[in-house]
Design a protein that fits this description.
By secondary structure, this protein is of the alpha/beta class. It is built from 23 helices and ten strands. Helix content is 52%, strand content 8%. Strand 3 and strand 4 form a beta hairpin. The longest helix is centred in the middle third of the chain and has 26 residues. The radius of gyration is 24 Å and the shape is globular.
Length: 506
Amino acid sequence: KRRGHLSYCPPEIIQKFNALPGYDDNPRYLFHRLQLLSLIKRAILSDGKGQKHPFSISTKGDLWKLLAMANEHIQLTKPSTQDSMEKELAAICNFISATEFSRSHVRHRSKLARSTWLYKNFTKKYSLNIEQIFHKNTGLTITEYLGLCVGIMTYYFTDAATDRIKQDPLKLFLNAIEWFNTCSIDKTKIEKFLLDISSSIEEFRSAFVERNSGLTDFTPLKDRPLIRHNSKYWIIDLNFLIDKIDSGIFWKVHEYLPSNKRQQFHQYWGENFQDYVNWLLNLSCKNVLNKVLEAPKFVNSHDEVCDTIIVCGNSAVFIEAKGGLLTTEAKYGGDPNLLFEELKKKLIGDDAKRKGVTQLTHSINASFNKKNPRPIEGLDFSRISKIFPILLLKDDLGECLFVTHFLNRFFKQSIQRKKVTPKVITPLFCLGIETLEEISGYLEEVSLVSLLESWYKNDPALFGSFLAIENPVKQRVGARQNDLLVQEENRLWSSVTTNLFPGQSQ
């Protein structure tokens, strides 16, 4: 598979790659997703004059050159000073896009499962009727919307689809009315849905001109992952379509709510994300290796310690989960100062307004202060000798290199290690939700602490992310998946099939 991507190159280029020392054992990728997205954006922003029609381009003669040239236009953020913190922020600016847009679709299962769980749980728990709001403004139920997204996925995301497109590249263009001809949803609803998730080239160009935070800001493409041309559609990026299932409904409801209701909606959604994390951990930790304390409170108080504590033998893992997202400008603008302000506001905080890092340090300092400790319901302090803090993010930033290392600057400043000795407090670990979903598949066999220690041992400065560092504990156990998430995804497919294609076996 790694060699397959070189098929876009002419024979003389393939020969040069094959001649590289060690290439047989470790073939390197020449092309990647960020190149392709950058090329698409650049093509959209061009006026099109004097350009070749895409299907008149010789695939092996020109496309590889265009992709390689696109790489040269992905500019790196450079620090303006030699200050170590600014250097780290500049590195994070660069790695945000590299991390987010280097992914394939291999984790679509957990994203689909998470999304359907969040929508179902929100509907059960809160009086804000997002189903009604969504239906009133789109004409579709949430189930219909999810179903149509999944329906488009199946056009592209199957072995049969790959074979079909290889035989005829024009099959990249989806004739949606033909594809959904046996669907129970009314044709006018399908057309309205397609208009909502697609744009013409001219509409994309206008959207980029109106708002463009940086070279790797692909917001218009994320918002509408299909290009519309006459009555046919072409998918820009499969991951962006999956993201519509993950966050599309949330942002639609946000858009339709009055401005004075949006903050409350975001607060509810953050709580809903915390519920999901606890659901996942409670059902994944089935034995004494990992004991879950959900929303733990201090004794004789209604004050919550953190979102979750997991007890692993003589260690306690304190988890603070954040369901919010960083702004587009901060993530893709390439401005280290703007990124820092956003991190302080949403993930670091201070004594006056604690967020993420300072929430964890405050709770740990208060709980284990040797002169005046605050007991926690259900936690035997006499057994705990080591504390592991985790900041868990829904934002893709949680998967990014350098982020854990950078946040530890502020964790070290506010944690009071001398006041909690002889308890040992490890550095802070930052995880993305996709990382936790992968980890959860192992928690029936190994402790969460053993996985964190394995990361720390192989990356003492914590420059990497959990998924980027080899983990001997994972390797010893072998590949695992969380059956809960598989079951949740299967429920989505079953619901889609039943509602969109009633009476049909497939």
